[in-house]
Amino acid sequence: MSASPRVLLADHDPLSRDLLRLVCGRFQICVIAEATTTEDLLELCESEQPDVVLTSSEVEAPIDAVLEALVATGARVLVLSDDRSPERLTSMLEKGASGYLLHDSAPESIAEAVLSVAAGEAALHPAAAVTLLQQWRALRRDGNRGGLNPRVSLTPREHDVLVAMADGLSTKAIARRLGTAVKTVENHKIRVFDKLGVSSQAHAVSLAIGQGLVTTGAAPEGEN
Description:
The radius of gyration is 17 Å and the shape is globular. The protein has ten helices and six strands, in the order βαβαβαβαβαβααααα. The chain is about 50% helix and about 10% strand. The chain has a six-stranded parallel β-sheet with strand order 2-1-3-4-5-6, with helices on both faces. The relative contact order is 0.12.
């Protein structure tokens, strides 16, 4: 997106908010408001309509409790967490988070993730991507033993778009790869989301890897 994304910060810790505010300021990302409680967070999402909610996994309570409500306001949510467990990562993505970073992420990585999420893309810490790949391998092994057939009926072009999403490409980059219009890619993504029963690219990629619809969850290629 051409304009600076409008970001709502949410964290119970003043120091953490100060650091995130400094990161955003350094990269000309506009912080429109800050929340310290889950009640404030929900109210500000409704009133301010931020492009991205940049939030700790703990605000007043675990963010899991209100994540779906945040996504329902139209906000895209980028979670910062110290929890590397597959269960937490999967839970966040299933509830609609568009990104999941660890607190040890570099300022540049946080800024890039905010911009990616604001543009409708997914943003995952490398450790999270490894976790997803491990989950996929485990599910494939279990599926092969149990005769699982998890296939979803995608058209060849929808599958191409899904593979490109798993490769970390933005909508514009997918359009360049496939030699088609950006609007056409957006329409394909909508149909893929509908068939998979998801509302975000991060969840689509997670589910696709888990179900064997794509065979790799490559790191982003850095295309915009």
